[in-house]
Amino acid sequence: MSTKVFDSSIEGIVVANSDGKVEMVNPAFTKITGFEPEEVLGEDLDVLRAETHQHDFFETVWEQLVKTGQWSGEYLNRRKNGEAYPEWLTINLIKNSAGKVINYIAIFHDISDIKRTEEKIKHQAYHDALTGLPNRYLFRDRLTQALRHARRNNLKVGVLFLDLDNFKHVNDSLGHDQGDILLQEVAKRLRSCVREEDTVSRLGGDEFTMILNEVLGHDSTVKVARKIMDALSEPFSISGHLLHVNASIGITLFPNDGEDTDALTKNADMAMYRAKDRGKNNYQLFTPSMNQDAMHRLTMEYQIRQGLENNEFILYYQPRMDLALNKVVSSEALVRWQRDGNRLTMPGDFIPIAEESGLILPLGEWILKKAISQALAWQDQGLKGLKVSVNISSRQFQQKGLANMVAQTLTETGLDPRLLELEITETTMMMDLEKAQRVMEALGRMGVGFAVDDFGMGYSSLYYLKNLPIDCLKIDQSFIRDLSTDPNDTAIVDAIISLCRTLRIHSVAEGVETREQAKYLRQKGCEQIQGYLLGRPMPYHELREMVVNGIKPKL
Ligand SMILES: Nc1nc2c(ncn2[C@@H]2O[C@H](COP(=O)(O)O[C@H]3[C@@H](O)[C@H](n4cnc5c(=O)[nH]c(N)nc54)O[C@@H]3COP(=O)(O)O)[C@@H](O)[C@H]2O)c(=O)[nH]1
């Protein structure tokens, strides 16, 4: 029976006598190690000892055997062909009734498969499945190690935080599969920009971080950032498409910009946001003032939220005049924040923060509803046909359900949709042309109008002018400012007015401050004007008076 067990066991078994000479091995032993019985029988057990462990390892094993009669543990052994393999080994001392050792029995099995699975699981836990780069956990671990080493040896470590610019467009236009391939290619290029001992990791989405070990100072980190930007500036060829990808990079240096992993990462992230603010496709070194800015932003975010709850926002209206009719035909709703009593905070101080934090969504909805109900009130007060136009920020325009929300508000209030105009910048429309088309056509069918705000400052693309339901171009005020002195501005304004005429789109000049400007625009055929010449943005009742009394003196 015991012979049968010995022979059929899947575990390798070696029996040695009290002198350590091998007396028996089973077939599993041969299968695992490759040694035939005749090659080991009568030999010292030492012939099976691989030189994969240090001397003190065997001393520990021996000590425990003597003490307890048994040792179990992981052992890195070697097959006959020289290949190393891990095994789980148990050695038992067999004693006779007098307590004298008569045999050593070693039982072992090959745990290569288990080890491989373990390694795989470990790799998956610490690597990004898409790019194979270290993930955020391994990044943190590596940075912690790098800082420990740098502290001990008085060295510097650089951290780069990189975010691809407009990656969402690739995903939206070509689909996620192509987006994934692009991320893999970006990962390869990033890896090629740093040394073997540096770490490039993917935190998720289009965010990557880099640990630059033992750098000399800021110059070295900047060099790497430039190298990365150069590497990314070459277009990527993905499934027949040539894609251009840029990145915004934030840089911190240990110990100057943070003492620990969290501080260095957070500050590099902050610097990356500064790079985005500065027009993307650039790098920024962290400065302590960025921390103050971040604190300011956080406080403002909190206060905007409170302001919404406490009804602190109000709308002002700026008149728009039809030059042929010499009458106010529309007004632009412009938000103000009335906090601390009567002090008005201007939109330039809070709209960008509301945009970044997403608070523009509830704020924008409030603005839209308020402007619609005000326009309705003017109709009821006899100001028939007075339109209202509302600025829609890009985040608001991208949100799901904007068309439904506008349509529902119009239905609920009963305002004629033709009295509402939405102002959108070129950049907003170009972010996702298909979506722009869907939203604008849905609302356009109801009668809502669309004005392109700040025209001339962005793409000025004829494609969207031809394909989107646009009613009006608002010529950016920067061209009007120097209309009489800068021949370039004069030429641009003339060209936009004639473009509007050709495309049968209304032309509106923004920022008109002088009679000369108004006169010139009328002469050139510009249809409407808006600006301080007519009046600054004003409370709703002042606008009503202006419409009722007419613009005096006549322009
Ligand atoms: N998403 C939203 N954005 C809004 C809203 N309300 C305002 N804004 C945006 O904030 C920016 C600054 O607005 P504001 O301080 O109100 O300035 C407007 C006008 O006061 C100013 N203007 C008008 N005429 C003149 C002029 O003759 N000279 C001169 N120097 N400035 C003038 O221009 C601003 C209006 O610009 P525009 O929107 O491009 O027509 C501004 O970008 C607003 O868009 C809001 O409710 N939602």
TrEMBL record:
Keyword Metal-binding assigned: no
Keyword DNA repair belongs to the record: no
EAL domain ranges (all copies): 297-551
Occurrences of domain PAS (ranges): 1-54
PAC domain residues: 71-123
One Pfam family per UniProt: EAL
Keywords of the record: Kinase, Transferase
Catalytic activity: 3',3'-c-di-GMP + H2O = 5'-phosphoguanylyl(3'->5')guanosine + H(+)
Domain GGDEF: 155-288
Superkingdom per UniProt: Bacteria
Gene Ontology process terms (BP): cellular response to nitric oxide
Record-level Gene Ontology MF annotations: cyclic-guanylate-specific phosphodiesterase activity; kinase activity
Name of the protein in its database record: Histidine kinase
Source species of the chain: Dethiosulfatarculus sandiegensis
